[in-house]
Specification:
With about 200 residues, the chain is mainly alpha-helical.
């Protein structure tokens, strides 16, 4: 396992590894999956009741309203609530469906993970962008990434030296308004996709 993963707090290691793996598997921008995982911040076997009678369950706070469609594949609430990467895979699959099928810009589509209700979507969207920018910086510093919206764009080169790489928690936990906000214009920001083999 890369040194920068070992340097993350134990409760964050699984979230990062599972989010990146799920993003690659379902071809969803890794920084968006990481941002949703951080925002949801669920725990295994956690059930949170919503005002509409549904529950958000597990590490990715997957809403039970989606389980009806998944039941035909034998997927249960207990599967989604369990520890491990399975809930991250389901969340990335769901994000992929929103990004491909919903209307609106990328951020609105990704925020549909939380809610399609405009006022709830807008608040989630704003926080999702902030977190995704932070995670894009973190990914760009450690992996070869690719601007998904520019065909033929040259892959980025990791910017972290081995000495800095051992201290990723500062970049991963940078508060909003630090180096990311000055460096990125989120209105035109395009999420990064990890290059295969990295």
């Amino acid at each position: 396992m890369p040194a920068f993963i070992d340097a993350l707090p134990p409760q964050v290691q699984e979230r990062v590894v599972c989010s990146i793996s799920a993003a690659v598997k379902y071809e969803v921008p890794a920084n968006i999956v990481l941002a949703v995982a951080e925002k949801e911040a669920g725990k295994p076997d956690q059930w949170v009741r919503n005002s509409n009678g549904t529950h958000d369950i597990g590490p990715m706070q997957f809403n039970t309203s989606y389980l009806g469609d998944l039941a035909r594949y034998g997927i249960t609430a207990n599967d989604v609530a369990a520890a491990g990467c399975y809930s991250f895979d389901l969340a990335a699959w769901r994000l992929r469906m929103h990004i491909r099928n919903d209307t609106g810009d990328l951020w609105t589509k990704a925020a549909n993970y939380h809610s399609r209700t405009p006022r709830h979507n807008q608040a989630y969207r704003a926080d999702l962008i902030r977190r995704a920018v932070k995670w894009a910086d973190w990914l760009d510093a450690r992996f070869v990434t690719h601007d998904m919206m520019k065909p033929g764009a040259a892959p980025s080169t990791p910017a972290v030296t081995p000495a800095v790489e051992a201290q990723p928690t500062a970049a991963a936990a940078a508060p909003a308004g630090t180096r990311s906000r000055a460096r990125w214009n989120t209105a035109g920001y395009v999420p990064r996709k990890l290059v295969n083999g990295q």
